[in-house]
Design brief:
Helix 2 packs across helix 3. The longest helix is centred in the middle third of the chain and has 30 residues. By secondary structure, the chain is an all-alpha fold. The chain has one domain. It contains four helices and no strands.
């Protein structure tokens, strides 16, 4: 599912969340008065734009990969990021409640 396919309210909340994460990142890591600062911002924005493609690619490998090892590695990566040692979903994250609601709605269909 792409961002533009989500309901407008969800898109707005995700954009607001992304902005707050970017502001927190900049407050923590931004190099002031440096030529690198602009380059880092542009690079981070370009990578952020590619993130949805990366997730789609990972999902494709996980579901349709020709080799069992590739599918297993993709699945392990997802589990590590969501549940395991590299978890990116913070239990206190305001988006966690929204994710629960969205997945609950899908499960009840």
């Amino acid at each position: 599912m792409e961002m533009n396919e989500l309901p407008e309210g969800v898109q707005q909340k995700l954009n607001a969340y992304r902005k707050s994460v970017e502001e927190a990142y900049e407050a923590e890591f931004k190099v002031v008065d440096s030529k690198l600062s602009g380059a880092k911002t542009v690079t981070r924005d370009q990578l952020a734009d590619l993130a949805s493609d990366a997730v789609l690619c990972l999902a494709e490998v996980m579901r349709d990969g020709e080799k069992d090892g590739d599918r297993i590695n993709a699945a392990k990566y997802v589990l590590d990021k969501v549940l395991g040692k590299d978890a990116v979903l913070d239990p206190d994250d305001p988006m966690a409640d929204m994710i629960k609601k969205l997945t609950a709605n899908k499960a009840s269909e």
